[in-house]
Design goal:
Blueprint: H1 2-15, H2 17-20, E1 27-30, E2 33-35, H3 45-48, H4 53-60, E3 76-80, H5 117-153, H6 155-171, H7 174-183, H8 192-202, H9 205-218, H10 222-229, H11 234-245, H12 247-270, H13 282-286, H14 297-324, H15 326-329
Antiparallel strand pairs: 1-2, 1-3
Helix pairs in contact: 1-5, 1-14, 5-6, 5-8, 5-9, 5-12, 6-9, 7-8, 9-11, 10-11, 12-14
Length: 330
């Protein structure tokens, strides 16, 4: 439950990141009109609502509202900034490698570009969750399709095609295969979506093995024989009757795979061949500590986020295994 609680906290923090860390105000009265710029960055509003005068002014001068005490603007009335009043891309030379400071509203300090680490970590959580869930989704689609084909068809299809394909893929360590693929890609295309796709395309063999084993166990059961006797075709038997009964180990292993995907994305971003700055990622924030050893906050906070996220998903996987597996419960 603790792991599930932390995963829920991450989901909420990642979704509401624009309301927690942003240089755009939660509400502002500008030129006699009320506006809610930060709320327009929440999905799906960020794709539906156009920018207004406040957004355009902040795009031209990100420090506009922060500098109002020194540079008053008569067009600005009341405004309320988020708790961390900085965007993840906002650079401030005066704050380069600044340590944690509640007075300056930098709770996790700043990086070598003067960007707020807390803001970057909140938006980086979106990258980690996106890569974790979507990469596992891609791996599940491929793994279930390949494993179901081998386990249900059997014979030469399994021995010559499916089993050999899985064995060939498993000969290559996933991390080094992923590293080789992203290393030869054009850096312009290295973002969360491409990293997610590459992780999904290289991490399906384990899920395929579990699917194959479950289908081989279930295809000769009375349930499958009854469905065939009732006139169901092989595809219907496989996906309507066998797959739902094979979901328990798949769900458990998919949960562990989410943790592994987050760790893989953080590792390749740490090495500089994953998500590229200025896009925030826990891995590329953590990599800065190798250049600035005295800036301990660059290692502590993203490292703790990666550790707690992977631990939480592993705890959720263990909980699912105990809840869904009667042998474990016994």
């Amino acid at each position: 439950m603790a792991g599930l609680g932390f995963v829920g906290f991450l989901l909420v923090a990642a979704y509401f990141a624009p309301l927690i860390a942003n240089n755009k105000p939660l509400l502002i009265r500008y030129e006699g009109r009320w506006s809610f710029p930060a709320f327009r960055e929440l999905p799906p509003l960020n794709h539906l609502l156009p920018m207004d005068a406040v957004d355009l002014r902040l795009a031209a001068d990100p420090d506009w509202l922060l500098d109002l005490p020194a540079k008053p603007d008569p067009r600005v009335g009341f405004f309320l900034l988020p708790p961390v009043p900085y965007s993840p891309y906002q650079t401030r030379l005066r704050d380069v490698n600044l340590g944690p400071s509640l007075r300056l509203r930098h709770p996790f300090g700043c990086d070598d570009g003067g960007r707020d680490v807390c803001a970057r970590m909140l938006y980086g959580a979106r990258v980690s969750l996106l890569v974790g869930f979507l990469a596992v989704g891609v791996a599940l689609l491929i793994g279930v399709a390949v494993g179901a084909l081998g386990g249900y068809a059997g014979g030469w299809v399994d021995m010559v095609v499916v089993s050999r394909l899985i064995e060939v893929m498993m000969c290559f360590p996933t991390f080094f295969l992923l590293l080789a693929v992203v290393a030869v890609m054009d850096p312009r295309y290295l973002n969360a979506w491409t990293v997610m796709l590459v992780i999904g395309l290289t991490s399906w063999p384990g899920l395929a093995r579990y699917t194959r084993a479950e289908f081989m166990r279930l295809k000769d059961s009375d349930m499958a024989a009854s469905a065939l006797a009732a006139g169901a075709g092989p595809v219907r038997v496989a996906f309507r009757h066998l797959l739902p009964n094979a979901l328990t180990p798949l769900l458990v292993n998919a949960t562990f795979a989410v943790a592994g995907s987050i760790l893989l994305e953080s590792a390749v971003s740490f090495l500089g061949v994953g998500v590229q700055p200025p896009e925030p990622s826990w891995g590329n924030i953590l990599s800065l500590v190798t250049r600035y050893w005295s800036a301990w906050w660059l290692g502590l906070f993203p490292g703790a986020a990666i550790f707690l996220s992977v631990l939480s998903y592993n705890l959720v996987g263990e909980g699912l295994r105990e809840a869904l597996d009667p042998h474990s419960a016994g």
